[in-house]
Design goal:
CATH topology of the largest domain: Arc Repressor Mutant, subunit A
Order of helices and strands: HHHEHHEEHHHHHHEEHHHHH
CATH class of the largest domain: Mainly Alpha
Number of strands: 5
Shape: globular
Helix content: 55-70%
Distance between the termini: 24 Å
Strand content: under 5%
């Protein structure tokens, strides 16, 4: 109860900062931040002073800017709602602001673009002398860091895919099928998934046992081709396996003993598995951290800004909880560090870099995750 009261106090305090009195508000949309950082040259620009509506539109757009990279993600509809005007009116002002050198649209290939959402992104040009490439190279914006990690992995994954294609020994027909299924995943998913990662998973799946469990063990974060309806399930049952159903017709956890499946009480299996999994994750997290330190010394010859502490071990545990094995982690780290050394780039200073490589874009599924998300939304 005390926790809920505290949350209510935070919400109310934030509203007082961000909202005007009701009789003075022109729309019901709350401001995203308590201040707006507008390029100062706009206030001595005769074009702006002759077109105050453009200055107002720029000010609203700037209120959504990420302070590290100058990139904002609201679409024109959101800006129009804030100002209580039409979207067409906002579009006209954005055209003027683009022409006058105050904003530019962040295209798909732009390194500053947030690659998840498919809406428009805008860069507010605070310093006309700074190029997009320079900004992407120097900014500490976590979105850009995630993009860098993804780009590095694309280079590495291409080589990995080639190797795994050879190992999988897919027929020509299976290669075409893998490409077709991958395209359907990319086209139908609302969240962003790298093409190479999906294709690699589909190829591995087609080369092995084509079951739902086999797909889940790959850990790509998508429903299986069977569940999506892209492939028909294999109706053949393995020899020596008997499906067990109890009297209440409820499925129980099964243990295979000499090719015969027997049921165990649900709570016994569940508790035992939880203890084993938690211990395994902690051990794997520590081993991942230790291996990363060793590989930094061996491959890079320096640990750079990285420091081994409890926070890094916690990040490693999060990676382990995603189903990533120590060997998978080690292979990925080895490829990344070798690429960094070849390009003369400093090694990642935090294991969250690798978490962004493995992370599945999921909505928070428990109270702890929801609390963290809520706390982040209150952060000024």
């Amino acid at each position: 109860m005390n926790m809920m009261n505290k949350v209510d106090e935070i919400i109310e305090a934030r509203k007082q900062i961000l909202e005007l009195p009701k009789d003075r508000m022109i729309s019901d949309i709350q401001a995203p931040s308590p201040f707006t950082n507008i390029p100062s040259r706009a206030f001595s620009d005769k074009y702006m002073l002759e077109h105050p509506s453009a200055l107002v539109a720029l000010g609203v757009l700037c209120s959504y800017v990420n302070g590290q990279s100058g990139v904002a993600y609201p679409n024109q509809y959101t800006v129009a709602k804030r100002l209580n005007i039409s979207q067409q009116a906002v579009s006209k002002q954005f055209v003027k602001l683009t022409k006058w050198g105050y904003i530019e649209k962040v295209r798909k290939e732009n390194p500053l673009r947030n690659r998840g959402p498919k809406g428009a992104s805008w860069r507010v040009i605070y310093d006309p002398e700074v190029t997009v490439e320079e900004l992407a190279r120097t900014t500490t914006d976590p979105r850009v860091e995630a993009n860098k990690a993804e780009d590095t992995m694309k280079i590495i994954v291409k080589e990995q895919v080639k190797e795994e294609k050879k190992q999988a020994r897919l027929s020509e027909a299976q290669v075409k099928l893998a490409e077709s299924i991958t395209k359907r995943y990319i086209d139908n998913e609302t969240e962003y998934f790298p093409y190479d990662s999906v294709y690699n998973a589909v190829s591995t799946y087609l080369a092995g046992e084509q079951t739902i469990d086999a797909w889940n063990s790959i850990g790509v974060g998508l429903l299986s081709p069977i569940e999506k309806g892209y492939l028909m399930p294999n109706k053949k049952q393995p020899l020596g396996v008997v499906k067990h159903v109890n009297k209440d017709n409820k499925k129980q956890p099964l243990e295979v003993v000499q090719q015969v499946q027997i049921s165990q009480p649900q709570e016994v299996v569940h508790n035992s598995n939880n203890i084993t999994i938690d211990n395994s994750i902690i051990e794997n997290g520590k081993e991942m951290t230790e291996r990363y330190a060793h590989m930094l010394d061996e491959i890079m010859g320096t640990r750079g800004s990285w420091r081994w502490d409890m926070r890094q071990e916690a990040m490693a545990e999060e990676i382990a909880r995603m189903g990533i094995t120590v060997d998978q982690f080690s292979k990925t780290v080895t490829r990344v560090l070798k690429h960094k050394r070849k390009e003369g780039i400093q090694p990642p200073y935090t294991l969250s870099y690798f978490k962004s490589v493995f992370t599945e874009n999921k909505q928070p599924g428990n109270v702890k995750d929801l609390t963290k998300k809520l706390a982040r939304s209150f952060k000024l």
